[in-house]
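Appendix B. Chain record.
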Amino acid sequence: MDKVDYKKSFKDLYLPKKQPVILNVPAIHFIVVEGSGDPNGEAFAQATAAIYSLSYAVRMSYKSKDVPKDYYQYTVFPLEGVWDLVDKSLPPTVKSNFKYQLMIRQPDFLTDELFERFLSETKKKKPNPFLDQAKFLAINEGLCCQMLHVGSYDDEPASFDIMAHYCEENGYQRTAKTHREIYLSDPRRVEESKRKTVLRFKVQ
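Structure tokens predicted for this chain:
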């Protein structure tokens, strides 16, 4: 069987255009870790490492003695983050005030039971304090506005303004102050001006 590649199988969710679109996002299973503070800090790096170590444990489980039922080859999905503010009275430029849910989408064969197995195995192989609060959750976003942002994360407000204007012109209203970011580029390897990030928020 061919490897399932999210860039081909889920183009509408992970390879949007540079203009806003409205789409219905189905329920998706993620491994999720929550945290707060500056995303340039050590805690954020640890939270990210925890999610990746778990996701790769699932991905590489075909090499284990007990291969998961219905396992199939796939490309690990990109890191996603849902962002909010701890203190709503502070401006969004105060990065230490950020609150986040980091997550990576999981393949269809992963079950609650398998998640507990991989969590236990990963804690032994790659200890990380954020593994203690890792969860396997189904998240249903429903109707959303999204677009592809190319450039620095600090320049995202300009793209959000474009999305807000698009919604206003087309009769949609944003329903939550939180927003989702999907990181298609590795910031360690891609220069700031070329980074690709999917931006998304819920609408009605």
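Further analysis of this model is presented in Appendix C.
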